[in-house]
Design goal:
It is a single chain. The protein has 6 helices and 8 strands, in the order βαββαβαβαββαβα. A 4-stranded antiparallel beta sheet has the order 2-3-1-4, with helices on both faces. Strands 6-7-5-8 form a 4-stranded antiparallel beta sheet. It is globular. The longest helix is centred in the middle third of the chain and has 16 residues. The protein is 36% helix and 25% strand. It has 2 domains: 77 residues, SP0830-like domains (Alpha-Beta Plaits), CATH 3.30.70.1280; 98 residues, Alpha-Beta Plaits, CATH 3.30.70. A hairpin with a 4-residue loop joins strand 2 and strand 3. With 182 residues, it is α+β, with helices and mostly antiparallel strands.
């Protein structure tokens, strides 16, 4: 039998407005009822840390199915292992410029993005914004916020990078890693 490990589930686009509302206690209960262990959530934007012996892709598919069945809408779920999230934090390619963790975003993608897509995105990063890419993560620095950023508009749009994904600010990323270590 496979050993249980900490997994981080990142739900895309929930609780941002009146649509796709999910109560975190109800989500925790749903996942616990489905057999996941140590289910914890962080803030209401769809961050879950849990333990499972299943593969990340299987957990993502199962969580998506459970959410659709219980809440009646589709939600993309991106999963990272504790080790993968630790690598994201250790890499921190924009550490030299990203001094405000609330304006430093990591977009977690389901699959690697074509380098040509990254090159097109990089053209949208107007000074002082920055973009870095590694595997299935895009790191973006928006010192003036995301409100008027053409780069952020493209990264955040469904299909903007050619892969399913969801973003979290640096505070959330490091907090989720700490939760996975508890």
């Amino acid at each position: 039998m496979a050993r249980e490990s900490s997994l981080i589930l990142l739900l895309r686009g929930i609780n941002l407005g009146p649509h796709k509302r999910i109560s975190m206690p109800e989500l925790r209960g749903l996942l616990a009822e489905a057999g996941f262990a140590d289910v914890r959530t962080y803030v209401a934007s769809g961050n879950v840390v849990l333990s499972s012996s299943s593969a990340p892709a299987s957990v993502a598919a199962q969580a998506e199915g459970l959410i659709a069945e219980r809440f009646g809408f589709d939600v993309d779920v991106i999963v990272r292992t504790r080790g993968e999230l630790a690598e994201v934090v250790a890499l921190n390619p924009l550490a030299d410029v990203a001094v405000d963790p609330k304006r430093y975003q990591v977009t977690f993608l389901e699959e690697k993005v074509d380098p040509e897509v990254v090159a097109r995105l990089d053209l949208l990063a107007l000074e002082p914004e920055r973009l870095a890419f590694d595997g299935r993560e895009l790191y973006t620095w928006h010192p003036d916020g995301v409100g008027r950023s053409k780069l952020w508009a493209k990264v955040a749009s469904r299909g903007g990078v050619g892969a399913r994904g969801t973003a979290r600010n640096w505070n959330t990323v490091t907090t989720l890693l700490a939760m996975a270590d508890d």
